[in-house]
């Protein structure tokens, strides 16, 4: 329409542009975990921005958990490569904001973790890339069966390895984040149950060990469908103790 001004195109702020460049260096691996960014004078010289813009760029990255800003005259920052726990913390905050119950995490894991078990069974390198990790976690669970709290820690490690070894990075991160949240809930329950004296007995813990053993055999045999079914049955049985309290 004549006389109408064209819409203004928003230009990125300098701080956002600097943060974007540094963020890409971190996620691409160009900057390693624990590496120093800076000092501040070097950053200012490289990017040609003002001190306020650089400080804002570093604050953006710090709010994302990618760096810790160093205080003092020289400034700079320490790099933190994103990890599964970072995703877990973010998901936890969102779920708490929405007042989500542990049941939601449990249902999600019952649907998703068996898929990871199936993916483990489909890996052509499962004998070297999956089974040894599961066997190591299984040995810890078997050795800890007489120690309720130790058994919970070992059993959770088995489930974490099941997800981590699935061979799909997106599933490993997404389901791994849920695993971490469920582990926190289960360990809190275990501490309370042990104190009350109503922790599941040795027979039930032994059932869990046997379920893990069956799952390892199915994965080693390449039976993806069987591994999914076994994982789903085991998760449903194991979660009920936590959800009932």
Query: Which CATH top level class of the largest domain fits?
Result: Mainly Alpha
Shape: elongated
State the total count of DSSP E strands.
3
Mean pLDDT: 90
Name the CATH architecture of the largest domain.
Up-down Bundle
- What is the helix content? 55-70%
Order of neighbouring strands in the sheet with most strands:
1-3-2
Do you know the CATH topology of the largest domain?
Four Helix Bundle (Hemerythrin (Met), subunit A)
Order of helices and strands: HEHHEEHHHHHHHH
Radius of gyration: 24 Å
InterPro entries: GntR_C, TF_FadR/GntR_C, Tscrpt_reg_HTH_GntR, WH-like_DNA-bd_sf, WH_DNA-bd_sf
Domain HTH gntR-type: 12-82
Protein name: FadR family transcriptional regulator
Pfam family, one: GntR
How does this structure look, described?
This protein has 245 residues and is mainly alpha-helical. The chain folds into 2 domains: 66 residues, Winged helix-like DNA-binding domain superfamily/Winged helix DNA-binding domain (Arc Repressor Mutant, subunit A, Orthogonal Bundle); 160 residues, Four Helix Bundle (Hemerythrin (Met), subunit A) (Up-down Bundle), CATH 1.20.120.530. The protein contains 11 helices and 3 strands, in the order H-E-H-H-E-E-H-H-H-H-H-H-H-H. A 3-stranded antiparallel beta sheet has the order 1-3-2. The termini are far apart. Keywords: DNA-binding, Transcription, Transcription regulation. It comes from Actinomadura darangshiensis. This is FadR family transcriptional regulator.
Could you give a quick summary of the protein structure above?
The chain contains 11 helices and 3 strands.
